Amino acid sequence: MQLAWSPEDEAFRAELVAFLDEHVPPEAAGGFDYADAADRSGGELLPDWARAWQATLFDHGWMIPGYPPELGGRNCTPVQTLIYLEEMASRRVLRSFHFPGYAIVAPSLLEFGTEAQREIVPAAIRGDTVWCIGMSEPNAGSDLAGLQTRAEVHDDRFVINGQKVWTSYATIAQKCFCYVRTDPTAPKHRGISTVIVDMDTPGIEIRPLRHLSGVGGFAEVFFTDVEVPRENLVGELNGGWRITQGSLAHERAGLWVDGVARLETTIEGLVDLARRRGVDRDATVRRRMAELYERAASLRALGYKGFASFAQGSSAPEHSFMKMATSELSKECFEAGMQLQGAYGAVVDPDRGEEQGRWALGFLTSFAGTIAGGSAEIQRNIIAQRVLGLPRGT
Amino acid sequence: MDFSLTGHQQLVQETARQLFTRECPTTLLRGHIEDPAASDPLWRHLREFTPLGDGPLTDLCLFLEEAGHVAAPGPFFATTALFAPLLAATGDERLAATLAGDTTGTVAIAGTDGIWLPNNDPVKTFVPEADRVDWVAIVADGPVLGVVDSPTIRQVHTVDTTRRFFEVDVEPDVAFRAIDADAVEAIVQRATVALAAEMVGTARRLFELTLQYAKERVQFDVPIGSFQAIQHKLADMALDLERATSAVQYAAMTVDAKDADRTRAVHVAKAAAGAAAKRAAKDGIQIHGGIGYTWEHDLHLFIRRAYASEYWLGSSEWHRDRLADLLF
Description:
The structure holds two protein chains of two kinds.
Chain A: H1 7-23, H2 37-40, H3 48-59, H4 78-90, H5 99-112, H6 115-118, H7 121-126, E1 131-134, E2 150-153, E3 157-168, E4 175-181, E5 192-198, E6 204-210, E7 216-229, E8 233-234, H8 240-254, H9 256-276, H10 283-311, H11 318-340, H12 358-371, H13 376-387
Parallel strand pairs in A: 1-4
Antiparallel strand pairs in A: 2-3, 3-7, 4-5, 5-8, 6-7
Helix pairs in contact in A: 1-4, 4-9, 5-8, 9-10, 9-11, 10-11, 11-12, 11-13
Chain B: H1 7-23, H2 26-34, H3 40-46, H4 57-69, H5 76-90, H6 95-99, E1 105-108, E2 123-128, E3 135-140, E4 144-148, E5 153-156, E6 165-169, E7 177-178, H7 181-216, E8 218-219, E9 222-223, H8 228-256, H9 262-288, H10 299-311, H11 316-327
Parallel strand pairs in B: 1-3
Antiparallel strand pairs in B: 2-6, 3-4, 4-7, 5-6, 8-9
Helix pairs in contact in B: 1-4, 4-7, 4-8, 5-7, 7-8, 7-9, 7-10, 8-9, 9-10, 9-11
């Protein structure tokens, strides 16, 4: 156990810092604060500067540093990847405004895709192709394996009918990584396949949905006799459930540094807010802020500990805890920000109250964290059953 | 930041795990309730590990986590986490014999308010194992240090039957000498992290007992561990345990490196260990139900240890308040 990384790894950090100092666009610097990415883009889901920034990262081998250069990386070690995530998070620099392509589709295609499918991976990572993930349905949320969007299997094509919902980026995506039922007679986990659907295929209708915070971002996607070539099948027919497990693992493994850094920034903001509100000598306020800090700090330590076991080849159960814990703590932090404003806690009026609703809106937005990508309750089930070895309920 | 254990650290952990499992069964803890001499055979095995008291805190913490796992009684904690570091920092000649395992000692700092800061109170309290060690090192305002061999003491009974606390009278004839104020602060920080490591071990024991019980206990024809209400409690216990374990290791690393973040890290570690231990104790007894409420079941031995440790060397709330002083 030691605090410092090796000189080679610190040299890696120095190279990254030099790159960032030179290339980070002003819009990306000082990036995330209290609001999510969409709030900072002037209502635009994917501004031009964000597209250009992701491509710049890719071209310099800084998009996914652990990948080889042709995939936007530089073949760096796991420790260096962590240093990269640390540095990006502490500088609050976002690498991309749309995570499905680089974080879920790319690793899934690299593992399960055909040679032709692997050829479209670079564009997914560079952000040239925007992807959405067709997972959730009106009747398949936590029970994802219960999805009902049907794909008839023909010799040369699939014909898809059904509906997806909560589909982030669907309004701007060129492609959808879509989970469909190809065998309705098989047990539900064994009748799912994964197909790549071009979003301009006839029969696809997209109805944008607004988040509860008011901003746009996700959508309902309807499929009516949508024809998809057979070669767009990813992995084996009826083998899609394995791919869902893989894609969610990619999402969870790398996000804790960013999640913890956001928490730390938010808590610094709370301390500052308490000072400005003149309640920084209040014993209850002070103890509450310290408790939030303690929880964030211990989660950072847990993330590093999990990384150490991951780097040594263990399955790293620590990662199962990080999403659940950071998202729940985030909700508490934003609510604390509302409480610190007393009667003005729920005010979003820009003419009244200097916070302009950022804590209240952040609070509303923060619910995404405990619902999307596996709710906090599902995370607890997973911890109980897969990490602690408890039996499944009936 | 690298949390992976070196080969040496793995050896420390594995050695401790085997030794404590073998030499400190709960029958010893029960014998210790009637007669503290029941812990003497354990001490004879632990004597050779007293050099940990003058080594890296990370090593000592790995060892003490296993001590906490069995709620080990006796003078080991007082000697290695308090007495030896104090001797080392103040150049006391008793250090060699202490590290050789030939001499035991404890440290008295807190006055009757229970706060571990040098003070002029003529009575020091929450001094562990003061009746059964060779030396009691008294730190008073100045700071000054006086080491005495047979002060007037009175036991302070807590819920814990595995660690015994005492009040120590500071007699007028104690020969005090001046010591470095920073050294006292460093020793208390070190002991605080060491205690947090022990608490994490105790919390892990409570968690393991409870997890095992949830898998075995059948009600409504199924193991109670298949119920979501039980699963979610255990997941939350596991989270608090994992984050506390990590926070303690981080704090030990910062203390060893004299890192600028160490003061915050120490407060975080003790508060997180307290949160984990209290949750493991409360949810542990709840999940055990009626059997956990009995004297015969071993659970209460660890619940008692967890709660007494929570209030020693600063409660979770006390450490959060100090943390707040650093945040604001």
